Amino acid sequence: MTLHHFVLILHLLAATIWVGGHLLLAICYLPTALKKKDPQIILNFEKKYEKLGMSSLALLIITGIWMAYDFGVTAETWFHFSSGFEKVVSIKLILLFCTFFCAVCAQFFIIPNLKPNNINKMAVIILTVTSIGVTMLILGSTLRYGGI
Ligand code: HEM
């Protein structure tokens, strides 16, 4: 096994936790929370998942950038949208910033005032972050064919 292969396995494990956790939240917990108008269901999940989720996101970033460098896609080439591979890495980085933006909105503006009547705002954030995660996974799967 090469070092790159090992890093790729870590990347895939972290992607499984990040995307899987958000799909579980969006498909299983969110509908129940909306039906019962009970924000606590979401908050309980977040409390248990937060550490694992944030560590897996950090691992995705480190391993992703590591592998991009392995392929010669270094920071100087990012956001030039010139080659198929670099395009995918740049889009992944932009989506990563969108994920951070959603996390900041949730942590500072939505979660502190989460009540049964504004649970919809949290639903929008959860569905956005989940869709972004799935998009990142699909984009990642194109890289072995040279990107888009
Ligand atoms: C939510 C975040 C992310 C998810 C869900 C994700 C998911 C994936 C998946 C499923 C693959 C496919 C591997 C394969 O086809 O064998 C992949 C590959 C890859 N990802 Fe990510 N990724 C994420 C974030 C990132 C970030 C932030 C970067 C770097 C800026 C990155 C860079 C790469 C690279 C370079 C590969 C190609 C590895 C190879 O084929 O050797 N990823 N990713």
TrEMBL record:
The chain crosses the membrane at residues 6-31, 52-69, 89-111, 123-143. Keywords: Membrane, Transmembrane, Transmembrane helix. This is Copper resistance protein D.
